[in-house]
Design brief:
mainly alpha
């Protein structure tokens, strides 16, 4: 029994595993949620572009921001995922810093675009809840990685 517990909580070198399982689960869930969010946003932009009097300049701006959002979110999840699994503070900090523009874009899609549908409001609110949890768990993980002894 002792060996099983030792195996579960310590790596092969005898040092404790510091990566956060809840944070890793949140990254996994957020990656799938963002894929669904992105698909829903594309479909809602098609709906708004066809049926609503959406100004062309605003539609182009919103689509460009959505593509930028996809790139930033992909980069953030990648750095957070790898930083947590490899217990690297720099990659995890990069993920936390990229979280701020992603949050700003989520707030933009939540409140500031030309037409905000109720479904968009709900999807962005859930995304912001994910961001809040990931920020707190990310800070805890970075502090744990920073306190660990490097040999």
């Amino acid at each position: 029994m002792y060996y099983l517990l030792y195996f579960l909580f310590f790596s092969a070198g005898g040092q404790p595993i510091l990566s956060s399982t809840p944070l890793q689960v949140l990254f996994y869930l957020n990656s799938w949620y963002f894929a669904a969010f992105y698909l829903a946003e594309i479909l809602m932009f098609i709906y708004k572009g066809i049926l609503l009097p959406y100004p062309t300049d605003n539609l182009v701006l919103d689509v460009v921001l959505l593509v930028l959002f996809l790139g930033l979110e992909t980069l953030r999840i990648f750095y957070g995922w790898k930083g947590n699994l490899c217990e690297r503070s720099l990659a995890s900090c990069a993920s936390l810093f990229i979280l701020f523009p992603c949050t700003a874009l989520a707030v933009y899609f939540l409140l500031l675009q030309t037409f905000v549908l109720r479904l968009e409001f709900i999807l962005c609110a859930v995304l912001l809840c994910f961001y809040g949890l990931e920020f707190l768990l990310g800070l805890l993980s970075v502090s744990a990685f920073s306190r660990s002894k490097v040999y």
